[in-house]
Each structure stands twice: as C-alpha cells, then as structure tokens.
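Example 3.2
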Amino acid sequence: MSEIQNEPHNAGEPPQSDLDYKINLLFGGVVVRKDLVKAVKGNAIVPSYVLEYLLGQYAASDDEATIQAGIDTVRQILAEHYVHRSESELVKSKIKERGRHKIIDKVTVTLNERADVYEAEFANLGIKGVIVDSPIITAHPKLLVGGVWCICDIEYFHTDDQRVVPWILGSIKPIQLSRFDVDQYLESRRGFTTDEWIDLLMQSIGFNPEMFSRRGKFFQLVRLIPFVERNYNLVELGPKGTGKSHIFSEFSPHGMLISGGEVTVPKLFVNNANGRIGLVGYWDVVAFDEFAGKKKRTDRALVDIMKNYMANKSFSRGIETLGAEASMVFVGNTSHTVPYMLKNSDLFDELPEAYHDPAFLDRLHHYIPGWEVDIIRGEMFSNGYGFVVDYIAEVLKSMRSQDYSDRYQQYFTLSPDISTRDRDGIHKTFSGLMKILYPDGRASSEEIEEILRFAIEGRKRVKDQILRIDSTMAEVKFGYLDTEGGWHVVTTLEEDEYPTYYHRGRKDEESKPEEPPTDTDPFSGGTASTDATSTGKPAEPEPEPDLFQGHREYQEGQRGVSFDSLLVPYLRGASQITIVDPYVRMFHQARNLMELVEGIARGKDPADEVTIKLITVENQDGPEKVQRQLEYLLQIKKSAGVLGIVFDVELVDPAAAHDRSITTDTGWKILLGRGLDIFQRMTDSPFDLATKYQKYRELKGFGITYLREAKPGAK
C-alpha cells in the first residue's frame, strides 16, 4: 500500500490522512466521516447509529460533493420525517391530511391478550394501540422489549367506532443493516497493519486515535467485547465524564442501556405471570448505567438470579430453565481515588451493598480501570473515517458464535494456579479482543502476548479485590509460561503504583517475589527485598517537626522561597484547608494556587483525601473576565480531583473577604499579607528556571504570620 497517496482536498474539507484514504479504498460504501454526525444531528434526540444509518445510505463516500449532497439529503429526511415530541400534534395532522406519511420514531410493541393482537406504541409521536401483524413480530422480536428505532409508514383512517384506533401501520423497517459480506470484511482487514486497524476502530467509535495511548485505545476496545462475545460480564468503575455508557447507548442497535441501574426480575429475565421473556432474551448486551451507589435500593432475588445467569447462562421460570446469551455490563462512577479505596476498602467500594458480594463479583470477567480512562474532551473526537455504526455492529454480532479463546496456546500456557472461573474470564476477554483485532485469527506471538497480558490483568483486578473481601479464597499467581518455560508475571498498574496499599491484608505480605506455581523455579538464587514498598508494610511516620510560630517579613526581590518551605509543612496532615484570598482571578494567580495544590498533594499520603475550600471574589472587570476566572478554577478542580483533593470554591461579596489567610483542621492559621500572589512577574520562557521552580523567582515584599490554635473539638 506504499503507493497510496492523498488526493488534493477541497477548501473547508478536513485533510484526508493516508489512513483515511486506505479506509475508503478498502471499505468504500460502509464508512463515513465521523464529524458528519454532529453536522446533521441538530436537535434530533436519536442515537448515533440511527444517524449513521442514514449517512451510510447517502454520504458513505470520500467525494466532498457527494458528502455534501448526502448531508443535505439526511437533513431533509430528518426535518421531514423525524418526530420531535414537541411537534407530535403537527405530525399527526400531517398524517391525517395526507392520509399516509413516513416517520422516524422509537417503536415498542406489546401483546394485548384480551384482543389477541400486537399493539405498537410510538415514543415521540405519542400514539399507541396501533395494530401490528404477527409476521412483523416474528421478523423483528426486539420490538417487544425496550423499543427499536424504525422508519415507518403511518396511515390514518377514522371510523365512528371509538374502539378502533384510527392509526394504521403501513410498513415498518428497523434501522439496522440487513446483511453484509463477512469474507470481504476479513479480506479487507488484511490490508491494514495492527496499528492502522486499531486506529480505524477508534475512529469508528468516534475518537481521534492520536489523542490516546496504546493502553488507552485498548480500554476503548474492551468496551466492544460484550457485542462480540456471548455472555461476557464486564465492569467499569471510574470518575465521571469518561464516556463509560456511550458505546452501550449509541454504538449498536443490539445493545440496551438501562439508566439508573435498577431493573426488575420480570423485565430482565422472565415474567412468570405471562411467560414473556425479558431483555436478556432479545438483546446482545444489557448495560446497567449509574450502577454504583452504596445505598442504592436492590432486589435480593434479582441479585441471586443474576449470579446464576452470569455463571451458567441460564435462569429459571418456575420449574423450567431457560438460556440466553446476552452479555452483562455494569458501569458506575467512583467518588474516591484509587489509593484511598485500596487503603480503606477495595476497588468495588462504590457498588451497592447487595452486589458487593464475592459470589457476584467472581462472575465478572474483566474490570476496566475507569480512573485510567481519559475524561472526554472536545478535541478527542474524530474527523476521520470510520465504519458506519450499524455495519460494524453487525460484524461483531456475526462473530459471537465463534471462539478464539485457544489461539494463544501454541505460544503460551496459563499458570496452573489459575482457577476455572479465572481462566474463563481470561479466555473470554482474549477471545473477544482477538475477534475485534484479528478477525481472521492471524496474529504473531508478540500480538497474541499483548492481548493475553491485557486479558489476564483485567481478571486479576477482579480477583485481587475479591481476596480483600473474602480472605478464605486462595491466592492466585497470575501469569503465563512461554514455550521455553520462561515465567511471565502479570501485575495491575495500581499494584505497581501503590504496592503498600494494594497488598494490604494479604496473608503472604512478607513473602518472596512471586514465583510460578510449578516445580520450576526461575527465580532461584534471588533474595526478597524487605523495604516498605516490597513488603506492603507502611513506613513509620516521621515525627512532626517543630514549626515556627510568629511573624516573618520577606523583602522585595528576595529569592529562595517557595510554597514548599513557606506553607506546605503547616498544611501537612490536614484534611480540611480553607484559603481566603479575594484575588484569584488572573492566570498567574490561578497558577500560584495550583502550585500550592500541587505541594499539598506531594505532602500528603496518596490514600488520604483532603478538602480545600477557596473563598474568593468574582472578577469585577466584566463577564469575559469572570468566565475566564471560572475556567481557571474549574481546571484546578479537575486536576485536584485526580490527586485525591476535593476543591471547592465560594464566591463572596468583596466586603466579606477579610484578611487573607489559610486555616486548617489541625489548628494552624496562617495570615497572608499578600495572599498567594507573592512572586514578581516572570518571563514565559521554558528555558527560564523560574517558570518551573518557585525558589528561583523574585518575591514581592510581604509579611506572614503563623498561629497555632486549638484543634476543633479540643478542650
């Protein structure tokens, strides 16, 4: 493919990369430029796969004229046929006056047992009781559960019989691809390198691959495994804003996202009253959004049935046992940092109490560490070409019946210490990634090893947390052997970063470095380290130094002073810090505050959480300056949150902001003559040491007073 060259692009058109050119060459007709979705969406509240279905019909091209014509067509279709809730009466009138009109709406069908007919309800149009012929239900059973976006012809015929609904379903077509050529898909895949293919998949999801690391790309791809692997159980917990639920609501017409994380047994599995199968019988993926929340109400019976289903792929209906192949996904937000969770509980700490159960957790095949996933920003979205969503969704669905879990065995052997359930989790993740990345099964030993390690790590994260909850479970050595007998240990990133807390409570805290569970000892002759990092024992805390109390003056032009020497020692150990400074509004003032936050973060235990409250005054120089000030403070809040620091801001009236000060819940009060604005203006040169190190900056003249007060609650 070295001969491939970019063709000139028109003005206003995003420049086409070599990869985009290759994508259009090998997958022409089933790819679309991903920024077009935003261009056509407008205020239409429809999933991306609906819009891309239409774009795939009219704008699947790299010719700019064709694209623009396609966009205009799609916009016209949406304007003419998409039903806005607020305009439902207008659309009804249009159907009545014309007699027949095509609409795009979400359709749900129920069985009216009394009349022995199927009846459709249209979500946005607001009509129900529309008769649906049985052959339509046979062809599209998902209409019975959760609703499906469809293109429908609706007719109107009024009679004097009030029992007869005047709306008639002329035709219905669910918005999803009807067929595709799997052989062509596999053949075209061979035209891409692994890196190119990963980037194509990232663009298909809607992201710019250049904004993600290799590991970050893998996290996104793991989210696709439930669509390509039957009965795959995935959990992702992490901070807000990382796009955890996006794929399950927007990416595929075969997935169902349950908002709020609450669902009933009849809705999910089976309604014993009428025998109707629930969501797991019709959808490939059932995802639970906002699953975290310790106090969230849960149904114990549901938890028990879910445990059985996740383990055995079956559930009971009275005396009858039924099977299904829907994958289960659980996504939720965390409110604490990783070291905090490791020190005080475990990485499943945020789950509802009924689900914080070793038996339930042991059914999970992979844990995506959401704290490693980047918060989604505007520049992370792609302008490149990717698969039309319903095309790749059908590709993934078609491969669910295949099993690639043994493709590593010619190169590697899993540790015999790994249990059957651990092995199943690793195998399913490995098989899923193989089908996504190497659908023809062709991969080198290095490529196979990469995804095998990733699969082991995800299951290890699950198992290690279960061991913290249930000490009766046996320890597991996660790793694998190569064909030459070499042992490769697998660790999690949080294990490497926070070994002291990760291994807290383990029965073998004092053990030697991890060995393979075989008679072979590749570590023979080695010695175990005994420092705090390797043993998991916290280091002895250093005694608090005698800190100066009283007043000090600093001269203008003086150097050698930093927040680390001036303030941080007095803030160490505090969990509540209040800063009063009316002048945190300009860039350099916000930078000073951020540098203090950084110093506090360095001085605290990574597992501890600190709350910093800033009391300041809103910029008085106009709305633009106010907006900029708020942006600075919001950025500090986001950055501080990653460090285990809760940053709050209170904007007060200028008259209410008294003397500039810092107070702590450890009893210190620091009176700041100039607030945090103690440094003179400096250059922006990256070669000036003063831009990086405070001690090289010249000071403004200021005074500071340190007072030791009684701790709150002390007598």
